[in-house]
Amino acid sequence: MNLTDRARRYISKMEPAIAGSGGHDRTFAAASILISGFAFDREAALTLLREWNGSHCNPEWNERDLIHKIESAISAPSSKPYGYLVGEKFEKQIEHGAPSKAPPAWPIRDHERIAELLETSFVSLRDLEALSPLNPGTIADPYAVIDHLFISPQESNPLLCLAKDIKTPATRRRSDWQGHIERAQYIVPNPMTAPTGKTQANRESVRCLDNTGQRRFLVVECDFTEESDRPLFEQLSNQGASVADLCSTVLCRLAEFAPLVMAVHSGGKSLHGWFSVLNQSETDLKQFMRWACLYGADKATWTRCQLVRLPCSTRDNGNPQSVHYFNADRALVNF
Length: 335
What we know:
By secondary structure, this protein is an alpha+beta fold. Helix content is 36%, strand content 14%.
């Protein structure tokens, strides 16, 4: 059996792609198998995906959609070696210098995936607030929120890094921040291990990977813009929805796979979703973040010491960084 027949047989056993029942994800999975698993080029992969479209998709995707799925699969990284379904011979060729695909570290956002989510699983900001175990209208104290997030029986006075602006962070004990938190806009969403650490350039810094502790939270921010995401903005307009509603929909989708602890408004247009990831492997978390990027997540917040918006603070434009969802019981839980 040649490689094309093997690939055709492989994807024929995959579940059908039905609109409203994960059809987009299943079609993307088939495209990924052809590109990353069997190492086909664009044209060969597209030919097989067309066949699969006719037998497995209801309704069938049009040609433009299929091309987009292939391009998305090319952009999306894989945790498995390129050509992992081809066989040992191919792997040895790669080891000895044969050309191989070098995908970007993070996938680009997939507008069609997001559009389908808006169509089938829309969750408005008001809906998200209604799901919150704590009434968002009563959450206004940044000290109380920080204590829920970072204080535990094992850690009663954690080191925290906060900043009034990006250029002036400081790392202090929780007790030493009393009376100062109100002036901060940003926080590192993980506890620090020391007041300072060494950067990769061997300079001392109050905020770097060297003095940032184990991940406790992974923050996802989807910063959609009308210039880059025009089709989504048109869809939002047709649905009478806002960018905040779009962010709420994405966060609820991601919450199916990791515990959502908090949703914080940026004071601009976006929401920051805080997901509890304590004790999870970096490999698993990177896969989660890659998947989140397909739904519009900004890859910048993957960096463990990245500053994010401080809950219940005020942005420099005067807008509140308000909390719209808070589930304190999930703050220190695992997947």
